[in-house]
Specification:
Layout lengths: L4 E6 L9 E7 L1 H12 L8 H7 L13 H17 L1
Length: 85
């Protein structure tokens, strides 16, 4: 059985050029990231392929340009989810 993994992104449009990886981990760390997201009503998107790529990005680093399209789709998902609420 594979260990649960999670990556958290943060993006401040007026401050950041691109989203940053702010937390990542597996097992208990991943569970804590997910719990914090749920407690703060932050939408969660499951994408195993993107998760693997993002988990290779160093903490507090902007995502590489080759990930922009995939991450833009995640932010589009978040926008649609939060817009409906």
């Amino acid at each position: 059985m594979r260990s649960k993994k999670a990556v958290a992104l943060k993006y401040e449009r007026k401050k950041d050029k691109a989203p940053k990886v702010t937390a990542k981990g597996s097992g208990k760390t991943a569970q804590k990231i997910i719990e914090i997201a749920k407690l703060n009503d932050i939408p969660i998107k499951k994408d195993e392929d993107l998760l693997e790529l993002l988990s290779k990005v160093e903490l507090d680093r902007e995502i590489p340009t080759e990930m922009y399209k995939a991450v833009a789709e995640v932010f589009g998902f978040i926008y649609n989810v939060t817009k409906k609420e």
